[in-house]
Amino acid sequence: MEIFEYHFMQRALTAGIIVGIICPIIGIFLVLRRLSLIGDTLSHISLAGVAAGLTAGFNATITAMLFALGGSLGIEYLRRHYSKYAELATAITMSSGMGLAVILISLGRGNTASVLCYLFGSIASVTKMDLFIMAAVGLIVVVSIIVLYWPLFFIAFDEEGARIAGIPVNKINLYFTVLTAITVAVSMRIVGILLVSSLMIIPAATSMQIAKSFKASVYISVAAALLSVVSGLVLSFYFSLAPGGTIIMFSLFILLLVISFKKLFAAQK
Amino acid sequence: MQREKVMEKIIEVKDITFSYGSKTILENASLTVFRSDFLAVVGPNGSGKSTLIKLILGLLKPQKGKILIFNTPVEAFNQWKKIGYLSQRAAFFNSHFPATVREVVGAQASAHLGFLKPMRPKDWERVEKSLEMVGLSELGNCLVGRLSGGQQQKVMLARILVAEPELLFLDEPMVGLDPESQESLYMLLEKLHKEQGLTIVMVTHDISGTVKRVNRMVCIHQNKILEHDPQLYKDKKITHSYITQLYHLH
Ligand SMILES: Nc1ncnc2c1ncn2[C@@H]1O[C@H](COP(=O)(O)OP(=O)(O)OP(=O)(O)O)[C@@H](O)[C@H]1O
Ligand SMILES: [Mg+2]
Predict the structure, then answer these.
(1) Under an 8 A CB cutoff, do A214 and B112 touch?
(2) CA–CA separation, B69 and B67 (whole Å)
(3) Which atom of ligand 1 is nearest to the CA of B203?
(4) Residue numbers in A near B59 (CB within 8 A)
(5) Domain containing B56 — which CATH number?
(6) What's the first-to-final CA gap in chain A, in angstroms?
(7) What's chain A's average pLDDT?
(8) Atom 25 (ligand 1): residue with closest C-alpha?
């Protein structure tokens, strides 16, 4: 196929596959813990990181990752202060990220085009360096989730019980937020800052419609995300659409399909 | 007393005072639990039964006094594997939560293996065994969110039992169970208590069902923990006390 003859497309698809695996496996835990907003928050912070990187002339993926890491520590810190209002911690962090991003973007005159690449995602601009960072982050995320699978699952349905069972809940929460931060930072290259959290949330929501076990829901959400990313990238290539938007619309399409099939199936019984 | 010399103290609550803000719940209250006690904690709503359990578990900190479990101050205690806790909550699984009964109990088993240790086949056998104990063998593959409140309560119990604890805290375990399930839970607890010498601390409002089975009973009354002999209530020797009034006994 013609599409695979372009080097940038090969890189974009490889990057897409990495993103399509790590976003949903982080997302399913976020959804189950009702922390869906965290993805959005960290992506706003990443935007500030991107602006800082572009202004200062560093690799924007790396600065975005550093900012997201800082933001994740901020969220954890605030969450302990507002333990009963966890969403306040995310809201405060999101606002600070956005404020900082706007200032930094206005400072770095002339870079608006590159900022837009990050805002909406861009497949033409994935560099070898980006790919290398993504592969490293992908490996870290996948291995961490495999190793922490049971404790993370336990915390998702009963945090207090997990504490009593001797699981180091605070440390795991902190580490998981860090994983979320680096996932957001590397994924925005493909889907765009504005849509990263959708790729974490929608496949998870899809899997929860049909999964018959937790393990199945992890697999289904990864399958749904991979299908969306690959189809989205191919469609955006042939029809010159924004890749991020196409990917997300495709994942929504899968969600709607699943819901309709479920309804149909239930009606027949 | 003879008994105190011989028996191992598992929980010691020494002179604790606890309040939520300005609302005092316990004042200079004390309680000692020995190994293999089956202790009922009774008292009116809001008297502080759940609070007492949370204090013993270190989930709340007393303003004054000391709490020891297995001879260790609770702040320094780390052998949580020995302890099972069923908190007072009704339906706790959101109906869309995508996890099977077996997975939920498995998570608990895995936590007790120690951090980062993988589940082995024999750990899954323990999961099956505890599902069987609470009568959930058939429902292992069901989604927890789809179970009834009483069935979910049994899942919670299976989770606790899978770790093979030495000390159980049950905060109103009978709530939401049908009479038959209540009876079989009582039988299971009695069996574990008699055969394995399990120590059980159970908060309950079901006095008449409880006094037949427990060997000790305390009531939280006016910020104190007061001991009562369950035998006297069972034999209906006591006809006038705040307990008989509260629970409309006899
Ligand atoms: N987190 C809290 N903050 C403030 N007050 C609380 C808190 N938890 C409980 N209380 C108060 O402390 C008192 C004791 O509560 P607790 O839950 O221990 O009662 P209980 O004896 O278990 O009651 P029930 O039989 O209804 O379960 C109640 O009056 C309650 O209003
Ligand atoms: Mg209570």
Answers:
(1) no
(2) 7
(3) 22
(4) 160, 164
(5) 3.40.50.300
(6) 43
(7) 88
(8) B45
Strands B72-73 and B216-221: unpaired
Residues of B with Cβ-Cβ distance to A207 under 8 angstroms: 98
List pLDDT tens digits, range A209-244: 999 999 999 999 999 999 999 999 999 989 988 888
Residue type, A13: L
CA B83 to centroid of ligand 2, rounded, Å: 19
Question: Measuring from atom 26 of ligand 1, which residue has the nearest CA?
Answer: B45
The whole-angstrom distance between B250's CA and the closest CA on chain A is 39
Q: How far apart, in Å, are the Cα atoms of B212 and each of B169, B190, B196, B236, B247?
A: 19, 11, 19, 11, 15
Q: CB–CB of A166 and B81 under 8 A? A: yes
The domain of B92 spans 2-246
How many interchain CB pairs under 8 A, A with B? Answer: 75
> Using a CB-CB distance cutoff of 8 angstroms, which residues of chain A are in contact with residue B98?
32, 207-208, 211-214, 216-217
Distance CA A78, CA A70 (A): 12
Q: What is the total count of domains within chain B?
A: 1
What pLDDT does B18 receive? Answer: 97
B167-171/B64-69 β-pairing: unpaired
pLDDT band at A266 (very low <50, low <70, confident <90, very high): confident
DSSP state of B143: B
The answer to which of A115-129, A131-145, A237-251, B206-220 has the lowest mean pLDDT is: A115-129
The CA distances from residue A166 to A170, A172, B101, B163, B247, in Å, are 11, 12, 21, 12, 37
Q: What is the enclosing helix (H) or strand (E) of A75?
A: helix A60-81
- Quote the tokens at residue A147: 């190793």
Residues of A in contact with B96 (CB under 8 A): 208
- Entry pTM: 0.81
Check if the beta carbon of residue B53 is closer than 8 Å to that of residue B67.
no
pLDDT (tens digit, 0 to 9) for every residue of chain B, 250 residues total?
445 556 899 999 999 999 999 999 999 999 999 999 999 999 999 999 999 999 999 989 999 999 999 999 999 998 888 898 888 764 467 778 899 999 999 999 998 887 778 889 999 999 999 999 888 999 999 999 888 877 888 888 899 899 889 999 999 988 878 888 888 888 889 988 988 889 999 999 988 888 889 999 999 999 999 998 887 777 776 666 767 666 666 5
CA of A58 to the centre of ligand 1 (A): 55
Helices (H) and strands (E) in chain A, counts: 12, 0
Q: What is the fold, at CATH topology level, of the domain defined by A7-197?
A: ABC transporter involved in vitamin B12 uptake, BtuC (1.10.3470)
Q: Give the C-alpha separation, B201 to B199, whole Å.
A: 7
Q: How far apart are CA A75 and CA A92, in angstroms?
A: 8
Q: For ligand 1, say whether the CB of B48 is within 6 Å of any of its atoms.
A: yes
Ligand 1 contacts CB of residue B88 (under 6 A)? yes
Query: Atom 4, ligand 1: which residue's CA is nearest?
Result: B20
